[in-house]
Amino acid sequence: MPHILVSTRIRLESGPTILGDEQTDPELMAYLGAQLFHEKCNNYSEYRTDDCVRIVLDKLEILGYRVMSMTGIGQTCIWLLHKD
C-alpha cells in the first residue's frame, strides 16, 4: 500500500514542504519538484520542495492519493496520504 507523509512548519511564508525520506519513489519526487536534502546532525535525508502544501496535495490528488489523516504537532502540520 503506497503511503506518503507530507509535513510543513507553521510560519508566515509558504514552504518548504517536506515529503518522505531517501526511500521515497524518486520519480514521484521529481513530479512534485522535490529535491533530496540532508540536514546536518540528522542520520537521514528527506525530500523538500518550495511549493506550499496546498500545491503538493493538489498534485498528489491528481495521481490518486487521498488524505487519510492530518495532525498538528507543535508548530508542524503533518498529512498522511494513501493511494489505492
From TrEMBL:
<keyword id="KW-0472">Membrane</keyword>
<dbReference type="GO" id="GO:0031965">
    <property type="term" value="C:nuclear membrane"/>
</dbReference>
<comment type="similarity">
    <text>Belongs to the GFRP family.</text>
</comment>
<keyword id="KW-0963">Cytoplasm</keyword>
<dbReference type="InterPro" id="IPR009112">
    <property type="entry name" value="GTP_CycHdrlase_I_reg"/>
</dbReference>
<dbReference type="GO" id="GO:0044549">
    <property type="term" value="F:GTP cyclohydrolase binding"/>
</dbReference>
<dbReference type="InterPro" id="IPR036717">
    <property type="entry name" value="GFRP_sf"/>
</dbReference>
<dbReference type="Pfam" id="PF06399">
    <property type="entry name" value="GFRP"/>
</dbReference>
<dbReference type="GO" id="GO:0005829">
    <property type="term" value="C:cytosol"/>
</dbReference>
<dbReference type="GO" id="GO:0009890">
    <property type="term" value="P:negative regulation of biosynthetic process"/>
</dbReference>
<keyword id="KW-0539">Nucleus</keyword>
<protein>
    <recommendedName>
        <fullName>GTP cyclohydrolase 1 feedback regulatory protein</fullName>
    </recommendedName>
</protein>
